[in-house]
Write a structure and sequence with these properties.
single chain
């Protein structure tokens, strides 16, 4: 009987040891998963900060006060996890949600800023597309790279370079508002000989466009 009890005690101890090893293994795997999750999140936040820095310095994009408060809170919460020494599930989830909220609000602000920053240039490019189709298309494609907020700085760099190239192209054509208005009418099929004043004619000759521009008659009844 004593032998049986001894064997049973040993079996109980062995089972406890096995269970403890399994728990340590499971806990280690769970902790490693949390650490990896936090590492990805930290990388995302870092990319976000770099994108904000670039767009502020190169494009004068400014966050509103509410987003700045949310961003500061996000960074503080993230730093708190680092200082604690190890990642925990609930704090990580809280930072993930904060990061998602900040990103969504920045996207809304950027969409408005992008429109105000690029609409005039894009409109002018579309007006002159018939003059240099290839260069205009390249500029418009590049500007469109930054249409939606992203943490990929490469897209913003392409956009910024394309805006600079568009400015050089427009400036190189010597356009003023009167000429732009004429080109817009021409693009919409509404230009008439009344729009061909001396300023427009001089520009057409200087740019060697006088033989390339064609005006169509505006439909209407004839008086007999």
């Amino acid at each position: 009987m004593a032998m049986m009890i001894g064997i049973l005690d040993k079996s109980i101890k062995d089972m406890k040891n096995l269970r403890q090893r399994e728990e340590r293994r499971d806990n280690k795997a769970a902790q490693e998963a949390l650490d990896q999750r936090f590492s990805v999140l930290t990388s995302q936040i870092h990319s976000l900060m770099l994108a904000l820095q670039y767009t502020k310095e190169k494009m004068q994009f400014q966050l509103n006060d509410q987003i700045l408060i949310e961003l500061e809170s996000l960074l503080q919460e993230s730093e708190g996890i680092v200082k604690s020494g190890f990642a925990e599930k609930d704090p990580i989830a809280q930072v993930e949600n904060a990061h998602k909220t900040v990103q969504q609000n920045i996207k809304k602000d950027w969409a408005k800023y992008y429109s105000s920053m690029t609409n005039s240039t894009k409109s002018t490019l579309q007006v002159i597309s018939g003059i240099d189709t290839e260069k205009v298309a390249k500029c418009l494609d590049g500007i469109a790279k930054g249409a939606s907020w992203t943490t990929n700085i490469g897209d913003f760099k392409v956009m910024n370079q394309s805006l600079a190239e568009a400015k050089d192209l427009i400036d190189g054509l010597g356009l003023d508002q009167q000429i732009i208005a004429f080109l817009l009418k021409m693009k919409n099929g509404k230009a008439t000989v009344m729009d061909l004043d001396e300023n427009v004619l001089r520009w057409l000759r200087d740019e060697s466009l006088d033989r390339r521009v064609k005006l169509s008659f505006v439909g209407g009844s004839r008086r007999g």
